[in-house]
Amino acid sequence: MPTLRVDDLSRTQIIKYLGASGDFNPLHHDDEFARRAGLETVIAPGMFIASLASSALTDWIPIGTVERFRTRFTDTVQPGDNLVVRGEVVSINQENISTIIEVDLSVENNDGIVLDGDATVRIDEVLRPNLDDRPTN
Question: Residue 120 in contact with residue 100, Cβ under 8 Å?
Fold first, then answer.
């Protein structure tokens, strides 16, 4: 799976996500509120970070083939962080006419892993007659 990078995550990117998702928790846009909550500054919504992992996966494989997508947040992301989304194929198995691919996912910021997860992808093969086996006249 190709690596996805977000350099210098901006407040604008976070605010755009907030508007699209309808998540107006002040932890994500109000510095003073975030400081009163014990944070240095605002934090990006976890689902925004999960969407980056999802986007990296579905840029590589069609969304309709994803059977399962799980994430676990391990740390927060702040404006200015550089993010790297990685995926590693950990298994490929054949099941009848389908290929099942298991992928481990991670998102890292400047300090380490902020999200880990995994996905299961099922690719059904198109059944076509083998034209080489046709009778000849």
Answer: yes
